[in-house]
User: Which sequence fits this backbone?
């Protein structure tokens, strides 16, 4: 049983300090963002800074309480907490009122809570426990399936609440699985999928030579190139054969392009698909005796790509909400709409850009103050930092986050228990994803996905959720020597 | 379970990704914040509300300091929809004297973005415009009960008397061309559209001021920008003193009622225009405010050509008013002497043709020839000049003749300070060469010019200026309407003396002839005579192919040290003596004596009531 003295001696003060700094900076920035000319005090509960202070109090209290819970409890209750949260997420879908299109808020009196925020630590605990108990082994499909399911269940439920941003956060937990041995190619495939998606969507409507979809053509071209590169990399000994394959691909494609341009127009994508499929058959034929293991990845990549390609347009047209579609289109520069969907990002860029090196000074920002930037105390709070504290302030803030992440990774790596290590990486992944998407979105290099800046943005559920997430890790780390 | 250390190297990959993203962010920040200043400018135009302060337009006074045009405050009722909570509609309607139905309709129109493109629930929207002080009074008092309702003041032209519309011109909204020409203006600004208002726009408009405010995304003002250090106060426009005599102007307009024509009266010594009448005229107040555009359209459509600025825009053959000038040129060119005597047997015979004349004693020398307006004398003189050997060709002679006439202000714009002046016309040798062929015309061909008919065209202003020049015995100052600008000098163009090419020594006998026209029993202008004042005059008739001739009369008085030179031009006025001469007489009397002798009231009444416009 931990005592007050022992936690005081063993807790990681660097993380605590950064956490408190972020919270304090966030608080004064929220005041600035919601500051009005006839403004009330920073403590007034009428404005968000006052309410945030209250949430800071609640969070510190919750964090404090967690320090006195026996570390074994976290391990033991992980499944139950996860189960209860899943139930809560399900209930929320049904009973939550419609708030700006999303059904993710529960109201208890005047308190509004977002269960999705608490699902983060619950999922992290459950995943950590599962990996710890089962010993994550990359090749084992059944175990993979369960660990994936733990991650994807809340994703699905939160998607159903129409909170796309929060749902995507959970996908960051695959990062943890990567650290624990999931093949790196899977991450690569994920990156490839994103690139394919962007190409397919961005050029989805355009046509090359009337019959060939430009998006489809590019994705297939990319697939052909990667396919051939993979052939060379994975089976260098058969280089002469692959060289012929490459030549055939290039030759047929060039011929097809010329015919399309000058003679007769047809859909070149079918030629590409035919080329890829024939090449796959050739590869399979050549390796049927030597064992297919060596070319499995290459073949899967090709088939996956083609399947994905046709999935994208379906997802884009049918699954995504219209406003999400527009946001992606704006980000990809497909539509230019500074006063519509692009408005937020445009105004965000204007406020940050007007900050200069030193910024306009605290409470001196005009863009954020005059409410040009929407959601400036929540998702777009980084704008206020950019406008009032300038390049210097932004760099310091990013530096703080990077330091926090590095410190957390160090802490995770020093664990003897796999449970704590995996949990630590979950904290890192969730925080990193939030920072990446939030700041990236404000800077105009990520689509507008509404998720808060950790421990900084206005929002009680978010702050409390992150506090619990961090506190549990701090507690687990503080007692790493006792814990087995 | 213990940690599995087989994938420890992946920590490096994860660290690299995090640091890579952080680096990307910092680079992106540097691009936005350090290497691009376009966002700065966006931010300023975003948040800085520039409110233009329109200065008061300069006031127009008459020559005696009486106000002619001034500014009065009008009030627009504004509503800010978002603030209209607990709005007392009944009180609002009662204050404005409107029905609740009208209120509902107006509110609907305001919300209609098609009718009101600038609609916002956060900013004041126009509900009613241009209420007078009396109309807006009740609302002002009840404003505290009407949240969201505000009153915006604006200033518009008012006129002390409904006169001198053509001289003053009017003020209207600037058009696209004005904005392109002068970046001082923005859409919705007002500027002088004609008359003095247009010519003196730069002096009258003053200098706009600007106040900068911070505004939020909804357009609400949130305080002064940078504590107002960039603010500039408006500089009011300069007041102008016009040369017009308001009382004389009003009197002249009264006499001209229901007649088409023009009156221009000039103070010869200064060139200042004392009265400037273009008839039919209109009340300048019609072109102010809400109804101005519909009134403008109505006036524009009227058959009377109300907007024709007759004194400077209409031009006619000057007829016999041209004879004094003809005489001066002939004297200067030594074609005739005052003693040259020409016989006239009811006309002038040249070749097989005859130019008619009315009956008068014959033969006549120059002075009685002017008094009786003898056609033969001037036809003979003109023909002698054009055909004179000393010029070698008629073309040369006409050139000399034209240059003299030109020096009197004929054939070109005088350069008066009233917009859209016409230039009249003097037929050139090139013109006659074209019409008749080079060398195949001579004095007899163009003989009509001798008596002011033919191709010579002059505006009433040019005729008035001729009269002033004769009154001055040989020089003039360009006629002008503005004699003083607050804190400034008037343009030297209006103070410089223009000498004619005719020597001063030739003027007395012309003046004597014009005096004789009034005093001599055989004179044509006897009706202008005013007891106790030496008046000089000359009638003229401009032939009109469409109906009765236009009657012209020019006169000045007193003969020595003249104070007023004037032309009265009445379209379809027939013989000058009927309308133009007595009208001029009354105006002279009014100006020189200040009142009309009771014995002449019947004439006054006859003129006022005459309607020549049917």
Assistant:
């Amino acid at each position: 049983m931990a005592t007050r003295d022992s936690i005081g001696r063993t807790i990681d003060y660097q993380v605590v300090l950064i956490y408190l700094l972020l919270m304090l900076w966030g608080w004064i920035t929220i005041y600035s963002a919601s500051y009005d000319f006839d403004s009330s005090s920073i403590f007034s509960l009428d404005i968000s800074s006052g309410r945030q202070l209250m949430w800071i109090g609640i969070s510190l209290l919750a964090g404090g309480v967690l320090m006195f819970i026996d570390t074994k409890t976290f391990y033991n209750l992980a499944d139950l907490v996860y189960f209860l949260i899943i139930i809560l997420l399900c209930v929320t879908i049904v009973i939550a009122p419609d708030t700006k299109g999303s059904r993710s808020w529960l109201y208890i009196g005047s308190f509004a809570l977002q269960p999705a925020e608490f699902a983060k630590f619950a999922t992290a605990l459950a995943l950590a426990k599962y990996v710890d108990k089962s010993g994550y082994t990359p090749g084992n499909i059944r175990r993979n399936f369960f660990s994936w399911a733990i991650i994807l269940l809340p994703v699905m439920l939160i998607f159903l609440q129409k909170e796309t941003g929060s749902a995507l956060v959970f996908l960051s937990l695959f990062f943890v699985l990567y650290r624990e041995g999931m093949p790196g190619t899977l991450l690569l495939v994920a990156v490839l999928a994103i690139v394919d998606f962007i190409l397919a969507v961005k050029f989805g409507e355009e046509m090359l030579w009337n019959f060939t979809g430009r998006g489809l053509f590019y994705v297939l071209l990319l697939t052909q190139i990667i396919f051939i590169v993979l052939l060379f990399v994975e089976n260098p000994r058969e280089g002469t054969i692959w060289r012929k394959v490459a030549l055939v691909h290039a030759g047929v494609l060039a011929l097809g392009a010329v015919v399309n341009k000058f003679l007769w127009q047809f859909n070149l994508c079918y030629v590409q698909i035919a080329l890829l499929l024939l090449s796959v058959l050739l590869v399979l034929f050549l390796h049927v005796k030597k064992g297919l293991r060596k070319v499995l990845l290459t073949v899967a990549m090709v088939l996956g790509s083609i399947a994905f390609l046709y999935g994208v347009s379906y997802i884009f047209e049918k699954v995504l909400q219209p406003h999400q579609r527009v946001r992606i289109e704006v980000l990809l520069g497909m539509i230019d709409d500074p006063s519509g969907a692009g408005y937020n990002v445009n105004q965000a860029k204007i406020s940050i850009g007007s900050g200069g090196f030193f910024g306009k000074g605290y409470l001196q920002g005009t863009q954020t103050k005059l409410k040009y930037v929407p959601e400036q105390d929540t998702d777009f709070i980084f704008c206020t930092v950019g406008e009032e504290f300038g390049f210097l302030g932004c760099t310091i803030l990013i530096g703080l986050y990077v330091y926090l992440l590095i410190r957390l990774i160090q802490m995770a790596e020093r664990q003897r228990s796999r449970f704590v290590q995996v949990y630590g990486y979950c904290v890192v992944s969730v925080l990193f994803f939030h920072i990446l998407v939030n700041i990236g979105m404000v800077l105009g290099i990520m689509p507008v996905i509404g998720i808060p800046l950790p421990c900084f943005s206005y929002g009680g559920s978010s702050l409390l959720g992150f506090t619990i997430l961090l506190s549990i890790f701090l507690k687990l780390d503080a007692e790493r020597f006792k814990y087995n | 379970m213990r940690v599995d250390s087989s994938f420890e190297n992946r920590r490096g990959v994860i660290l690299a990704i995090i640091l890579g993203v952080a680096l990307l962010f910092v680079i992106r920040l540097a691009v936005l914040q350090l290497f691009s200043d376009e966002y700065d400018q966006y931010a300023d135009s975003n948040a800085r509300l520039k409110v233009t302060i329109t200065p008061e337009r300069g006031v127009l006074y008459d020559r005696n300091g009486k106000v002619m045009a001034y500014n009065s405050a009008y009030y627009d009722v504004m509503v800010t929809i978002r603030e209209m909570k607990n709005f007392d509609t009944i009180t609002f309607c009662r204050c404005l004297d409107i029905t609740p139905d009208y209120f509902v309709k107006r509110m609907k129109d305001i919300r209609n973005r098609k009718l009101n493109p600038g609609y916002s629930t956060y900013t004041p929207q126009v509900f009613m415009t241009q209420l007078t002080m009396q109309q807006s009074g009740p609302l002002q008092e009840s404003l505290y009960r009407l949240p969201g309702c505000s009153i915006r003041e604006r200033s518009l032209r008012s006129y002390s008397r409904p006169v001198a519309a053509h001289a003053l011109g009017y003020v209207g909204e600037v058009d696209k061309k004005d904005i392109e020409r002068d970046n001082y203006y923005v859409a919705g600004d007002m500027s002088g559209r004609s008359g003095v208002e247009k010519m003196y726009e730069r002096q009258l408009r003053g200098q706009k001021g600007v106040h900068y405010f911070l505004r939020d995304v909804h357009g609400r003002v949130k305080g002064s920008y940078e504590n107002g250090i960039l603010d500039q106060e408006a500089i009011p426009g300069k007041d102008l003193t016009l040369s017009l005599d308001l009382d004389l102007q009003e009197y002249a307009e009264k006499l001209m009622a229901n007649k088409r024509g023009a009156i221009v009266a000039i103070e010869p010594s200064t060139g200042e225009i004392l009265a400037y009448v273009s008839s039919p005229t209109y009340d300048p107040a019609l072109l102010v405010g809400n109804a101005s555009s519909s009134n403008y359209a109505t006036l524009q459509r009227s058959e009377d050509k109300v907007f024709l600025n007759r004194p400077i825009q209409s031009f006619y053959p000057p007829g016999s008013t041209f004879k004094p000038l003809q005489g001066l040129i002939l004297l200067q060119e030594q074609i005739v002497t005052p003693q040259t005597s020409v016989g006239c047997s009811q006309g002038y015979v040249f070749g097989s043709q005859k130019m008619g004349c009315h009956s008068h004693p014959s033969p006549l020398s120059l002075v009685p020839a002017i008094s009786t307006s003898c056609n033969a004398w001037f036809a003979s003189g003109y023909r002698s000049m054009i055909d004179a050997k000393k010029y070698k060709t008629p073309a040369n002679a006409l050139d000399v003749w034209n240059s003299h006439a030109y020096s009197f202000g004929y054939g070109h714009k005088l350069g008066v300070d009233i917009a859209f002046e016409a230039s009249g016309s003097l037929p050139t040798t090139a013109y006659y060469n074209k019409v008749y062929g080079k060398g195949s015309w001579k004095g007899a061909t163009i003989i009509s010019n001798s008596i002011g008919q033919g191709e010579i065209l002059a505006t009433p202003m040019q005729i008035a200026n001729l009269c002033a020049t004769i009154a001055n015995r040989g020089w003039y100052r360009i006629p002008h309407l503005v004699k003083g600008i607050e804190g400034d000098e008037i343009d030297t163009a209006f103070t410089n003396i223009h000498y004619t090419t005719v020597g001063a020594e030739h003027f007395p006998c012309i003046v004597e002839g014009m005096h004789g026209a009034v005093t001599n029993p055989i004179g044509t202008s006897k009706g202008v005579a005013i007891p106790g004042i030496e008046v000089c005059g000359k009638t003229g008739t401009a032939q009109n192919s469409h109906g009765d001739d236009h009657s012209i009369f020019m006169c000045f008085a007193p003969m020595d040290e003249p104070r007023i030179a004037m032309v009265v031009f009445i379209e379809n006025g027939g013989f000058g003596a009927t309308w133009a001469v007595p009208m001029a007489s009354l105006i002279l009397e009014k100006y020189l004596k200040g009142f009309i002798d009771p014995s002449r009231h019947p004439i006054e009444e006859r003129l006022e009531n005459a309607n020549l416009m049917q």
Observations:
- Chain A has two domains: 4-182+338-478, 203-320.
- Strands of chain A lie at 106-108, 111-113, 207-208, 212-213.
- Chain A touches chain B through 56 residues (CB under 8 Å).
- Residues 327 and 447 of chain A are 6 Å apart (CA to CA).
